[in-house]
Amino acid sequence: MQEACPNCNTIVSPGQKFCPGCGQKNKLPRITVRVLIKDFLQYIFNAEKGILNLLKGLATRPGHVVTEFAEGKRKKYFNPFSFLAICVAFMVLMNSWIKPYAAISAVPKEYVLDRIPGEETKDIYRLTVKREAQIQGFFNRNMNFGTLITAPFFAFFLWLFFQRRGRNMAETAVAFILLTAFISMVHGVLISPGLAMTRDSNIHSYLTLAAISMESFYYAWGLKKFFGYKTSGGYFKILLVLWLAGLIGMVLILVFYYIYVYHGGASIVLQYL
Ligand SMILES: [Zn+2]
Q1: What mean pLDDT comes out for the span 187-198?
Q2: Would you list the domain boundaries of the chain?
Q3: Which member of 81, 122, 179, 246 has the lowest number of beta carbons within 10 Å of its beta carbon?
C-alpha cells in the first residue's frame, strides 16, 4: 500500500527507505525521550566526524579536500560556513583569553604635546592619537571578522588571475574559506600564544609577518591542485597573486589610515612624533 510522506505529501512506495520528494526517512518513529537522545548523539557524532575529517584533510592534503569539495563531495565533509563559524568562534575565544595583540594607548604623549607649538596642531595630534587607538581597538576586537572580509577580496583576485583554470568565483571563494577556517584554527592554537608573549617587544611584528608568510605558503599549497597545476611553477604563480592581492589590500588600508587617522594633518603631526 502506498503512503504519503508526512513531511511533503509525496507518495512513497513501501519499498523506499527515503521520500523521493524531500529525502525524509520513511516510517519515522514517534518522538520520545529515547529517540531524542539517539538523534542528538547521532547529530553530535556525525558533526564531529565531519569536522575531524575536514581538519585532518586540511592538515594533510588541503588541495585534495578543496578540489573534492568543489567537485561535489560535500556530504563527506562539514558545511564550509559552519566550519568557518566554528573556527572563528574558536579563535575569538582563544584571542579573548590570551589577548595576543599590542594595545595602543589612547592618551596623548606629554613630550609630543610639549614639542607642538600651536594649540590647533595639538588638537590635531590629540585627535590622531584617539583615532589610532580607536582603529587598533576595532581591529583587535574584530580581527576575526577581518578574516571574513579578506576572504571575498582574495577570492576575487584569485579568480581574476586564474579564471582560465576552470573554477568560478564562488568555487574559489569556498576553497579559500575552507583554507582560511583551518588557518584561523591553527593560528589560534600555535601563533596567538607567541604573539601574546611578545606583545610588548619588537619580535611581535616579525612574528606577525612570519605567520602571514607561512599562511600564504599554505594557501598556495591548497590551491595548486584546486587550479589544476602539477608543477611548482603553478605554486609560485598562486603565491605571487596572493602576495600581490595582500600588497594591494595593505595599500588600501594605509590610504584609509592616512585619510581617517591623520585626517589630512599627517604632514603636520608626523614631524613632532
Ligand atoms: Zn517527503
Answers
A1: 82
A2: 63-270
A3: 81
Are the CB atoms for 93 and 253 separated by under 8 Å? no
Residue 71 CA, ligand 1 centroid: distance in Å:
27
State in Å: Cα 26 to ligand 1 middle: 8
Cα–ligand 1 centroid distance for 28 (angstroms): 12
pLDDT tens-digit series, residues 38-73: 888 888 777 777 888 888 999 999 999 999 988 887
Backbone phi and psi for residue 25, each to the nearest 5 degrees, phi listed first = -65, 135
Using alpha carbons only, give the angle 200, 254, 147 rounded to the nearest 5 degrees: 70
Q: In whole angstroms, what is the distance from residue 264 CA to residue 72 CA?
A: 51
pLDDT grade for 267, boundaries at 50, 70 and 90: low
Contact status, residue 78 vs residue 47, Cβ threshold 8 Å: yes
Q: State the distance from the centre of ligand 1 to the C-alpha of 262, rounded, in angstroms.
A: 61
Q: How many whole angstroms from 170 Cα to the centroid of ligand 1?
A: 30
The rounded distance, in Å, linking the Cα atoms of 146 and 143 is 5
Does pTM surpass 0.90?
no
- Number of C-beta neighbours around residue 194 at 10 A: 17
3-state helix, strand, coil in the chain (%, to 5): 70, 0, 25
